[in-house]
Design brief:
Layout lengths: L6 H17 L5 H18 L5 H23 L16
Helix pairs in contact: 1-2, 2-3
Length: about 90
């Protein structure tokens, strides 16, 4: 069996990308982690019935949608600066 038809390979990629997001924040790797997690669910549900081309297309579409949604909901308004009023040690 090829690697893209294994659900655990997609789940492993999702975990690696989520860890990368923690190390380098910015909601960019998180979108790809969501896409890989979605692909793990799809591959597990369909029994690895997707070809490589369709797997890449589906992963890219879901990842792009996740990145766009994360940017829409978690970005600062234009010209706005995030200010901290309190210290974590207070």
């Amino acid at each position: 069996m090829t690697l893209w038809t294994e659900w655990w390979a997609w789940a492993s990629l999702a975990l690696i990308l989520a860890i990368l997001e923690v190390l380098a924040p910015g909601f960019f790797a998180l979108g790809f982690a969501i896409g890989a997690a979605f692909m793990a669910i799809v591959v597990a549900a369909t029994g690895a019935g997707l070809s490589l081309a369709w797997s890449i297309v589906l992963f890219a579409v879901v990842s792009l949608g996740a990145v766009l949604l994360l940017r829409r909901f978690f970005r600062l308004e234009k010209g706005q600066v995030k200010l901290w009023d309190t210290d974590i040690n207070d």
